[in-house]
Amino acid sequence: MGKIAFVFPGQGAQYVGMGKDFFDESRVAREVYRCASQASGLDVEQLCFTENDRLNITEYTQIALLATEVAILKVIEDAGFIPDICAGLSLGEYGALAAADAMDLADLFALIRKRGLYMQEAYPVGGAMTAVLGLDAATIGQICEETEGIVSIANDNCPGQVVITGEEQAVQAAAERLSAAGAKRCIPLKVSGPFHSALLAGAGEQLGEALEQVTVRKPKMPYVCNLEARLVTDAADIKRLLQQQVSGPVRFRESIEKMIEEGVDTFVEIGPGKTLTGFIRKTNKDVQVCNVEKWEDLEKLSALLKG
Question: What domains, with CATH codes, occur in the chain?
Fold first, then answer.
């Protein structure tokens, strides 16, 4: 077996009840949720496990999803499985930082709570995001540049799936041009802001100020950052990358390719859903992929990694 990568999903993967079986079965997982609640000032257990109308609101989504990802991660680590490299999509990059032990968990949870608030408040109305299917990223980027207003690539997820972001009218205009250029579909996303666009630069600046109060350590293993799709091994880079990530693009397809280039042949998606599993398979069909979102998934993970 080659190298193993742990990868963590971003917003959109959350659902009520995520992580509940890990909470019920594992003291390690319960400690993570309680740490998240204490650090954020929210009842994260209630947010994740009880029907509510807050889970899909950015300022609450981010802490709930990260707590679930880290709780599952800690159970996996407790079973003796450690990655060679890690990465995450948008919010999921903070899961990768937890795997790399680059910050204390209390600091990580307090920071993600602030990130969610800053992003929610930065551009409350007039923003949009649209998924573009069946067109290459270079063409999409060129058409965005030629479209009047603020519109750009938010996520390059995998071959044939790119998300654009920005001002609502500019995103709509770009989508019309992209359809004319050969996109199979342009699907408006139900989101609460124009994430990963220049419109959120102010939120990034606020996050940068918050980061100045946090101690960041050298990662125990390299992680691949969203912004530059490269391995990060130096603590000095992390604060800048996290600040700029808020308004910069998520280069996840290139991140997958980078990890494979580094010798990764097995990917483990940690957290709710199978979104990243799908992206990885569309990027490279030759690698092994496993997702862990339920307690019973630990058995297939063990079979894969010990096999």
Answer: 3-122+199-306 (3.40.366.10), 127-192 (3.30.70.250)
